Amino acid sequence: MKHSLAFRILVSIxxxxxxxxxxxxxxxxxxxxxxxxxxxxxxxxxWDLTYYHLDIAVNPADSTVRGKNTVQYKVLQPHQRxxxxxxxxxxxxxxxxxxxxxxxxxxxxAWFITLPESQVAGTVNTVEVHYSGxxxxxxxxxxxxxxxxxxxxxxxxxxxxxxxxxxxxLWWPCKDHMYDEPDSMLISIRVPENLTNVSxxxxxxxxxxxxxxxxxxxxxxxxxNNYGVNVNIADYVHFSEKYQGExxxxxxxxxxxxxxxxxxxxxxxxxxxxxxxxxHWFGPYPFYEDSYKLVEVPYLGMEHQSSVTYGNxxxxxxxxxxLSGSGWGLKFDYIxxxxxxxxxxANSITYKDIADMWVHESFTTYSENxxxxxxxxxxxxxxxxxxxxxxxxxxxxxxxxxxxxxxxSDDMYPKGxxxxxxxxxxxxxxxxxxxxxxxxxxxxxxQTVTTQQIEDYLxxxxxxxLSTFFNQYLRDTRLPRLEHxxxxxxxxxxxxxxxxxFNMPVKVHLNGKVQWLEPTSKWQELKGSKKTLKVVIDxxxxxxxxxPGV
Length: 550
Ligand SMILES: [Zn+2]
Prior knowledge:
By secondary structure, this protein is of the alpha+beta class. The protein has helices spanning about 5-15, 30-40, 40-45, 260-265, 270-280, 335-340, 360-375, 380-385, 415-425, 430-445, 450-460, 465-475; strands at about 45-60, 65-75, 80-85, 90-95, 100, 105, 110-115, 125-135, 145-150, 155-160, 185-190, 195-200, 200-210, 215-220, 230-235, 235-245, 250-255, 290-295, 300, 310, 350, 445-450, 480-485, 490-495, 505-510, 515, 525, 535. The chain is about 25% helix and about 30% strand.
């Protein structure tokens, strides 16, 4: 999740009959701050994150956060300046190494810390960052980052964080770039009495403090991306089940508002069947050690690692709406399926740069189709994913700008998913395709990746050079068109509206008979065809479908 799915719904409702693409988005100007935030600066590159201990008090009464983050790192190259990120109005009070305060210089959202002690390659050191403030309030969670401070129907605090894109540094100091993840993390959150905090991983212990407040210690034993780290505070009630999965018993824990317990017990039945479908297609759930959780929040939802957040109103569809218009989108709870799909694509396989966000959203939107297929059959899955095409805008390429924390078009959801569905048609072997999806999850397990790694992997495993295929769908906004014409008993065809060298094979039905074509931009000829040739392009290929003769 992230970005304007809600906006897309509105657009699709209002403009579904209008075929004209939106005007090309203007390239926004990038600032020096964008580069500091979005690139692997020299002050980031020399050290490798190994562990965080985030230890804070969250106070709903005055919307403040106060505490410290202990950052443990391994020195890769000796260097004396370290960049950590913390966005105003949050402020660093002091930074310590071995008990000694360090000089700190703020530059916008970045804080440059001078380390007087020598940083010897291979050693593991820590800095302790003390900080406080009133973190940014999210205006439109989860699409804008920050805290959400709400109340439940009894007037008790109902608080959550969401910050994909805008950055975890909105509320805690960290290395706010996706290429590097700590190997594990301890999250200690102090909250007022009678409230529960749920974060990522497993609850290690709860301390009761002398003032009646409680500190919840959650431990994540796997690498975690920074936007996945989250705080959820409410008068939660808890129920649980055990899922017998591919890797053994998976603990599934559910935290919901007291008033929603009975609705949740019914609606969350979608969890085991989601896990079942995705383990079939992608392999074992990637965080057995950290358990699976679904946590109610005061916003739509987000793929927080091992604590998926939920606010879909205990109804099927996307807030009750079928994004595909096929009817199949109302057979399941969109947020449970979509956000759980992200455990494989986002949390286990994670982009290094948000420009490659399609690795999260295209695969995860595609996972909705695989869920539908697993439970309702292949035709249903096809109808679902083909139905999503009406949401495609063709406004800008799916891949965004590198090094400046800038994602590409929201087409990464429906168009990227249809690209993968098209690739499956090319592979034309369902077991092989499933093997490739499972292979991705094995070979890039718990890694941060670039689009190139994923593209190369798919080329290699399909046995086809897919470079122009990906250039077309990820780096261009045009939709390929299969042009064809009849001349006597010869039938001619070619690709148009494509990038140079586009050579995707395509399946057509010629007078009802299946024919695989290998078109290029040059006209090719099929001899000996009937004069009245009825041409039907397989609708599962995402190309222009209404192709008149040329
Ligand atoms: Zn998503």
